[in-house]
Amino acid sequence: MYFKTGHERAFGTFPLKDQQIEDALESALDVGYRAIDTAQMYANEKNIGNVLSQCGLARSELFITSKVPTSEFSESAFIPSVEKSLSELKISTLDVLLVHWPPGDDDVRPSLDWLQQAKQQGLAKHIGISNYNTKQMRIAKEHCSEELVVNQVEFHPLLNQQTLQKTAIETGIPLASYCSVARGKVFEYALFNDIAQTHEVTAAQVVLRWIIQQGVSINPMSTKRANQAANFDVLSFELSADEMQQISALTNTGYRIVNDTLVPFAPTWDK
Description:
Elements: E1 10-12, H1 18-31, E2 35-37, H2 45-54, E3 63-68, H3 78-89, E4 94-99, H4 109-120, E5 124-130, H5 134-143, E6 148-154, H6 162-171, E7 175-178, H7 190-199, H8 203-212, E8 217-218, H9 225-232, H10 241-248
Parallel strand pairs: 1-2, 2-3, 3-4, 4-5, 5-6, 6-7, 7-8
């Protein structure tokens, strides 16, 4: 979905709030970002709305994603929470609305019904999921009459997500990456600097390019303009098959950031 619309590079906004997100987003828009990724849990939608309403860009130029947390998973709360997001973002429709998490390993279908209702009511042009494992992806595919355009998951070179990638192909639900540079852990590996020197780019650009070349979209966050620009400029070079293979070998490291210690309500992850 994101690739089809030319929005394979979104600007991530977690954990920025208040003036920090407003300054960072103004810079990111100036760099060239038009896709913005936020969530109700980030508590920054109002600040993002302030920037979007004053940036001078037409709504049609922007591609805005937000997410509903499990705390709003009820018949009475789900739709009002989306309406609140729209009000704070100062827009009438989201480009993509996601359920931020599944309800642990419990039944995902009720929340998917409310998600589909949001689209049917015109609150979102597209809908998707986040942090779903393979079992939940298959249930979602079978259950939903509306197309699911993405599953946003932890995805970086230090975590093997091949099982999830195969399920993405099987179900037709593409993956999007968060924690794309493993919160800086990737920079402990010399391989990325070595490849970066070959292409005259940064190590972070190599990581992001590796993700994109697998058909997975990215949403990196930075408050620094130079890093924002570098993260955005990842389509001007291409990694060779050998370089891709070298990087992919690191996925066996098995470094997962979002584990059940950090997020106790996370589903059972695929091995």
